[in-house]
Amino acid sequence: MRAVRGLVGLGWLGLVACPSPPADGGGGGAATSGSGETSSTSSTSSTSSTSSSSGTTVAPTTTAPAPDAGAGSACGARSPEALMDCIDSERWAEDVAFIAKSRPPGSIHWQKVQDRCAAGLEKAGFTVERQDYGTGVNVIGRREGTEAPSEVVLLGAHYDHISGCPGADDNASGVAGALEVARVLGQAALPRTLIVACWDEEELGLWGSRAFAESFTGAKLAVAFNFDMIGYASSAEQSQIFPGPLAERFPGLAEELVAHKGRADFIAVVADSSAESFALELEAHAESLGRLTGVMTLTEAEKLDEDAFGVLARSDQVSFWEQGLPALHVFDTGVFRYPAYHCFSGLDTADKLDQAFAADVLKATTAAVATAAGL
């Protein structure tokens, strides 16, 4: 997630419904480590490229093999609710552990993570291409809908991060989450086309997702889901910041947080008005798991106004809002609860993340995406 102007604005942080999180960043279980340094390189890593109609270049498209059901092979895949049970949080934790190393664009580990995205999507049954838009590379996985292939549902997460910071929550958690949701949904026959993407250069100004959104033609986008920081939670009381301006704008959520004693263990969703119904669907699935969820819907005027609620619009969903396309952002509130955001107070490492919290995010999003895709 991009650094918010002035560390989210000192004035904003000074007006809170719940006090600042403790400096030690305590609370929540650690994400399981695994996977090591070995890179999974997709066959799409060919250096040759072809021109696309948008003026960008893409690596030759690779048609994926049959989906890898893995640990979820015994779960049901006939309904959004059944698909929730297919989520394997251990796979998520292994991917987080692999990704969570310094990976600024162009670095060796950035390339390894890009390759892991391509390989994971291909293994999940997606047709994969790498969109080279000049300064960076997006990894795009596409699975054609069975009934309405020209209608698209999208899930994306950025894989780049700032130099010198492991970026476990920001955004290894989101990339690992997108890959796990892709694996699960690869088992389902979805009426609409599903695209799962790993965006590049979000930290530089949403460059990767903006290149995709600006060139998106020939299909109707039903909604874009964005994962950016989905792994940190704390059950400690008064560990969640909710700035005064947000509390005034969303009083119902502010009241819920007070009743929840300021615990930083709820799922946050930010949507524009055209994506609100999809956000509420996700909320319903999350709360069926017992996970408090707060939906904040921005008006057309608010969603692109950085002087109003731009603090809620600092990630890749904005690229779609700029094009008038429905989009929502699923996250853990980032700097409002996580001291190690951008390594400001300690390193953003996998051991600080909460695997159970992330699993609930993935389950609820899986069901919401499946519903949006017509299942």
Automatic annotation (TrEMBL):
This is M20/M25/M40 family metallo-hydrolase. Transmembrane segments: none annotated. Signal peptide: none annotated. Residues 21-76 are annotated as: Disordered. Residues 138-362 form the Peptidase M28 domain. It holds the Pfam family Peptidase_M28. Residues 32-76 have a biased composition (Low complexity). The lineage of its organism: Bacteria, Pseudomonadati, Myxococcota, Polyangia, Nannocystales. It comes from Nannocystis punicea. InterPro entries: M28_fam, Peptidase_M28. SUPFAM superfamilies: Zn-dependent exopeptidases (SSF53187). PANTHER family: METALLOPEPTIDASE M28 FAMILY MEMBER, PEPTIDASE M28 DOMAIN-CONTAINING PROTEIN.
